[in-house]
Automatic annotation (TrEMBL):
Family per similarity comment: Belongs to the UPF0225 family.
InterPro entries: NTF2-like_dom_sf (IPR032710), SEC_C_motif (IPR004027), YchJ-like (IPR023006), YchJ-like_M (IPR048469)
Domain YchJ-like middle NTF2-like intervals: 34-128
A Pfam family the protein falls into: YchJ_M-like
Organism of derivation: Arthrobacter sulfonylureivorans
This protein's name: UPF0225 protein MNQ99_15380
Length: 132
């Protein structure tokens, strides 16, 4: 797994330091309070290669038995395009985002609408509609 210094900018591009942003969620010290926060932390897990976090935050009905990340991908950016619901008092929400990455010397992008639901008091990723 890739290590991010706690005082470095968070890979999710929130504008906050990693230690004050996604790190507490990935370490299990806190739960993401919103669907967008979970989306950002899951992106950071892709950046760092934290498969355990990705599986732990995936809805049990849609979670794969295992997950292998492509080591040839280098995630380079995240842009939140739209968030519908998914707040601290909501039961569901959708986050539309565009994630950029580099593969084989070429810049690429993945645009997606991800659905999140609150299960047992915590946000989990349900599924997505890919748009790229």
């Amino acid at each position: 797994m890739k290590t991010v210094p706690i005082d470095a900018p968070c890979p999710c591009r929130s504008g906050h330091a990693y230690g004050q942003c996604c790190r507490p969620f990935l370490r299990g010290d806190a739960e993401a309070p919103t669907a967008e926060a979970l989306m950002r932390s899951r992106y950071t897990a892709f950046v760092t290669g934290d498969v355990d976090y990705l599986l732990r935050t995936w809805h049990p009905e849609t979670r794969p038995a295992s997950l292998e990340l492509d080591s040839a991908l280098a995630w380079t950016g995240l842009q939140i395009l739209r968030t519908v619901r998914g707040g601290e008092s909501d039961r569901a929400g959708t986050v539309e985002f565009r994630a950029t990455y580099r593969e084989g010397g070429q810049d690429r992008a993945q645009q997606e609408k991800s659905t999140f639901v609150r299960e047992d008091g915590r946000w989990v990723y349900r599924d997505a509609l890919s748009q790229s």
